[in-house]
């Protein structure tokens, strides 16, 4: 990993942490501010994905008007994400792939919204950050990533930090809420690894095109199920009581998170995104302390410290530094050796 990639990894991880924290806090605020008149976790997830629809059209408009690029050239680049060996996948395959991608994306969002009614956002994010361990293992087994003891230690320290945070009784909650978030974590892990496995390193244009397709698939596949849940009053809301401010802030936050996450996975690795989510755990903890009045204990500070150290170990190219140092020592020894 060169200096540029290291800096980019740190920036992406920090952005993921910030956007995931914003999305999580606004998500909870949306669902708990007036639960009697607004209780629609799937509806919130559905509404959030709708914001993906204009991503590619907006990008296309910017490129055509702002840079003078040809729309046909941009579209040709974008649709390559749907091709394999220079041939388009069949319509049924594409529809199935979009359905699977949509389910893997919406499922954790829905479960997260359902669970944070029973547990704090900090605990929910703590459990979800365990996907770093899952991603680390799957990246080596499925993506052929090189094993690193420093990254492995970083993941272990980060997970230990998460466990420390969860030991803070002020932040813990209902066991069922934790189990629900664990299921969401598995879904996030599968999504992250599959995106990298299937798409490799797509361009920004292709990432935005894929996300707009996700928004379209959301309309096609989920409009009727969401309508049925509202009609049967499994989910309910009073239109005049919809908390528009936190809802719209959540939608913009999750949109920024999704763009950063998908582009980060494509350009870097799923592990970088997972570490960003882990870094968001203490951020959410601070939000819960400052905004929601929860009291931090010794375990919170220990957990935050371990997560910070783990973040450094997984993002900094320590292996490369050691290898470069050893090479420099070998060069110096070779130069110092007398020639016969």
From TrEMBL:
UniProt keyword annotations, A-Z: Membrane, Signal, Transmembrane, Transmembrane helix
Keyword GTP-binding on entry: no
Endpoints of the signal sequence: 1-23
EamA domain segment(s): 84-166
Pfam families for the chain: EamA
Top-level taxon of the source organism: Eukaryota
Entry annotated with the keyword Transcription regulation: no
GO cellular component: membrane
TM annotation in the entry: 39-62, 93-112, 118-142, 149-167, 173-195, 207-230, 242-260, 267-286, 298-318
Full protein name: EamA domain-containing protein
Organism: Bursaphelenchus okinawaensis
């Amino acid at each position: 990993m060169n200096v540029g990639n290291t800096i980019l990894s740190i920036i992406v991880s920090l952005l993921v942490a910030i956007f995931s924290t914003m999305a999580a806090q606004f998500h909870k605020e949306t669902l708990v501010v007036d639960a009697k008149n607004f209780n629609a976790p799937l509806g919130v997830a559905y509404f959030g994905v709708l914001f993906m629809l204009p991503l590619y059209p907006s990008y296309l408009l910017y490129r055509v008007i702002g840079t003078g690029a040809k729309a046909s050239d941009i579209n040709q680049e974008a649709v390559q994400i749907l091709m394999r060996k220079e041939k388009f996948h069949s319509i049924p395959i594409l529809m199935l792939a979009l359905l699977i991608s949509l389910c893997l994306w919406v499922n954790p969002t829905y479960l997260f919204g359902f669970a944070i009614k029973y547990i704090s956002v900090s605990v929910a994010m703590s459990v979800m950050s365990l996907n770093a361990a899952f991603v680390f293992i799957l990246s080596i087994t499925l993506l052929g990533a090189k094993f690193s003891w420093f990254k492995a230690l970083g993941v272990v320290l980060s997970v230990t930090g998460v466990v420390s945070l969860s030991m803070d009784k002020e932040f813990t909650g209902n066991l069922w809420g934790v189990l629900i978030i664990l299921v969401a974590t598995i879904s996030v892990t599968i999504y992250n690894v599959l995106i990298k496995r299937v798409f490799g390193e797509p361009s920004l244009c292709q990432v935005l095109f894929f996300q707009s397709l996700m928004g379209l698939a959301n309309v096609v596949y989920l409009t009727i199920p969401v309508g049925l849940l509202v009609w049967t009053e499994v989910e309910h809301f009073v239109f005049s009581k919809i908390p528009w401010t936190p809802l719209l802030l959540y939608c913009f936050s999750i949109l920024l998170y999704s763009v950063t996450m998908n582009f980060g996975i494509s350009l870097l690795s799923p592990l970088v995104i997972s570490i960003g989510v882990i870094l968001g755990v203490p951020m959410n903890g601070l939000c819960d302390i400052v905004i929601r009045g929860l009291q931090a204990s010794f375990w919170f500070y220990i957990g935050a410290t371990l997560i910070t150290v783990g973040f450094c170990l997984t993002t900094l190219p320590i292996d490369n530094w050691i290898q470069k140092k050893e090479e420099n020592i070998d060069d110096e020894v070779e130069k110092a050796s007398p020639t016969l």
